[in-house]
Amino acid sequence: MIFGEFYSITIDGGVFVNERIPEETVEEIRRKTDIVDIISDFVQLKKQGRNYFGLCPFHGENSPSFSVSPDKQIFHCFGCGAGGNVYTFLMDHDGVTFQEAVLQLGSRTGISVNVEPDKNNRSEQQEDISYKNHLEAHDLLAKFYHHLLLNTSEGQEALEYMYSRGFNEEQLKTFKVGWALPSWDFTAQFLKNKGFDLPSMEQAGLVIKRDDGSYFDRFRGRVMFPIENDRGQVVAFSGRIIQPTSDEPKYLNSPETPLFQKNKLLFNYHRARGSIRREQSVVLYEGFADVISSNEYVGHGIATMGTSISDQHIQMIKRLTNQVILCYDGDQAGVEASYRASKEITAKGLAVKVAVLPGKLDPDDYIQKHGGKAFRQEVIDSSVSLMAFKMRYHRFGKNLQTEDGRINYISAALKEIAFLSGAVEKELYLKQLSDEFDISLESLQAQLNDIAPRFTKTNSDLRKPAVQTAAIPQRRSMLMPAYQTAERRLLAHMMVNEDTAYTVQALLNGAILNKDEHQAILTYLLAFYESGHQADPGAFVQILPDRHLRAFATEVSMMEINPEVGKEELNDYVLEVLKYQKMLKIKEKESEEKEAERRKDYRRAAEIGMEIIKLRKALKR
Ligand SMILES: [Zn+2]
């Protein structure tokens, strides 16, 4: 593999996150690289017209919907929405970081990359040497513990215990599970003999200092689970006791250290990347042991390390997929935690499903009882929509036999329904409530309108979670309303020509595009030009913050457009955009008019009627 070379640079390079590569270098390398060349290493591409097509490496498919544009130096899949420039491709395909992708292409193009320490992190640079020590110590210990568990008589009892808990040899090997001897200073002595400095090892969380200045082992007589960072380096351990005692915790984790920060680490992230891409979803557990026990059938599982999900975690997930399947414990605490996590995750634009465990089982219990295959089919693949989960959630702790309980439940459910964007989905759940509690649909609908009239009125798709699968381009544009096609055409023209961008800005005269994503791209694009960049779709997608927007931008950029566009054509598109806004306004007025009539305020209704006529006239102009 082409990665051999640069891995040797980065693996012992320590903390890469604090270093940056100058933007000019990033751009120079990108310009000297042909995206078609790079992608051809992984995908068979055939030229059709100006672009190349092939089978998408990010989702399973039989007919090619993956396209690469040599002119724009971008790729886009019309099937799953993957898209970006050459760096994005390598990051998504091989799960490497941005810096790693740049280094790799740098060595390919013969451009040397100067990695500057980030100015904000100058002090951390001096600590790099000790971090490097910490990494080496963790790596060495993980290997040693693993050897002790699998191959020695000292590890025999622990090994049998692990087998009795349902783990098999393959799982133990994949996750490099090990055994720390029940000794006070075995690890301390081992590290010392290998030349490690014990005060530094204390900082790494491996040993603890006594009052008399001597050091003892943090982990004693525990099954050791190495915790790896997003690059597969061991940065911490979790140790599980095999004979439960009253005064020791079942699991003992490394403390937070410079290398191990719980809010930035997801267990198994490194290993699961490929599966997450293929499955187009990620399974999120509460405990890392669930990841290991389910791994044989659920390769796309990750877990937080005893902490609730953080913004950084969500960012890490977002780099790979937009679909999260929550699989928390089946007890009340687990259900509460799922509800909280779903809020955090959907707030960041990701879609959530919930895998519901029967009874109060946790994933590991379920697998022990029914096996991994049943877990995959009955739990993960049968995960329910977030709405279905919320309806169940609101039943928790409510006595539906009493009137109070029923009212509380119905109003909580209606609040959730009010936030749904699809009319069909809304009706489905209203019908469900109506049937269950024998209340007429009309009165539920009336109550729904009271709760959140502004959410129930608009049919905008702003609230919809990011969509993973898209229809093929032709079909999509046929189904697309005229204003959306117009907005996309405008953006496509703006992306290839800076002057056009400013012309459109002037024509819009402060009006915003109707679709959120389109407006976001427009804003980023103008900022891109204003900071001195020239038109270049491949460079532009680089600055977009998430894959959802990138997918939009690359898809728009792949549209066939007339390069000689005139101001008149642009103006037509802008008029289409404005027309839609006027139509929305008319609809709004119409319902105000009805409302006034219902109140028997005929004077007001007539006034609104006049306004509507005026608006209609303006529309025809
Ligand atoms: Zn695809």
TrEMBL record:
A zinc finger (CHC2-type) spans 56-80. Binds 1 zinc ion per monomer. Its cofactor is Zn(2+). The keyword Magnesium applies. InterPro entries: DNA_heli_DnaB-like_N_sf, DNA_helicase_N/primase_C, DNA_primase_core_N_sf, DNA_primase_DnaB-bd, DNA_primase_DnaG, DNA_primase_Znf_CHC2, DnaG_bac, DNAG_N. Residues 280-362 form the Toprim domain. Its EC number is 2.7.7.101. RNA polymerase that catalyzes the synthesis of short RNA molecules used as primers for DNA polymerase during DNA replication. Contains an N-terminal zinc-binding domain, a central core domain that contains the primase activity, and a C-terminal DnaB-binding domain. Monomer. Interacts with DnaB. This is DNA primase. It comes from Jeotgalibacillus soli. The gene is dnaG.
